[in-house]
Amino acid sequence: MAITEFSVAQDGKTQTITTSIWYRQIWKDEFLVWDPEDFDGITELSLSSDAIWVPDIIVTEFVKEGKSPPIPYVYVNSSGSVKNYRPIQAVLACSLEMYAFPFDTQNCSLTFRSWLHSGLPLTSKGDLWFTM
């Protein structure tokens, strides 16, 4: 999973931040493997995300749904690698400390977890990076 942030706006009155991020999630699905030679050399295709299993990852700090454009497709390659890339606009709860304004620094969390499996620990394999 990777996230690139490309805009942030804060609202001291409501103690929220609105952020636009580009969310990238890649996983391997052993049921989506094929031999390209059997299918005219096709090595990648796009599928409706409703047609396959997709991890149900949410942001814990969401307080309001943003204006994220729906992207109902994922890319699958012949080795079973699935790519789910989508923009997300998130309105998040954040305790803003404005006492040093305009020289204040804010520290807000962006916590990703499973919606259905909230009681189970999630394991992230590979690198997770965040860029601001």
Task: Output the keywords.
Acetylcholine Binding Protein, Chain: A, 7-stranded mixed β-sheet, mainly beta, two-stranded antiparallel ribbon, about 130 residues
Characterization of this structure:
- This protein is mainly beta and 132 residues long.
- The protein has one domain (2-131): Acetylcholine Binding Protein, Chain: A (Distorted Sandwich), CATH 2.70.170.10.
- Helix content is 0%, strand content 45%.
- It is built from no helices and nine strands.
- Strands 1, 2, 3, 5, 6, 7 and 9 form a seven-stranded mixed sheet that branches. A two-stranded antiparallel ribbon has the order 4-8.
- Strand 1 (2-11) and strand 2 form a beta hairpin.
- The mean pLDDT is 80.
Work out the radius of gyration.
18 Å
Number of DSSP helical runs? 0
Shape: elongated
CATH class category label? Mainly Beta
Mean pLDDT figure: 80
Count the beta strands: 9
Runs with pLDDT <50, length 5+? none
Helix and strand composition category: mainly beta
The named CATH superfamily: Neurotransmitter-gated ion-channel ligand-binding domain
Please give the domain count.
1
- The name CATH uses for the topology is Acetylcholine Binding Protein, Chain: A
H/E element order: EEEEEEEEE
The span between the termini is 16 Å
- Second rung of CATH, namely the architecture: Distorted Sandwich
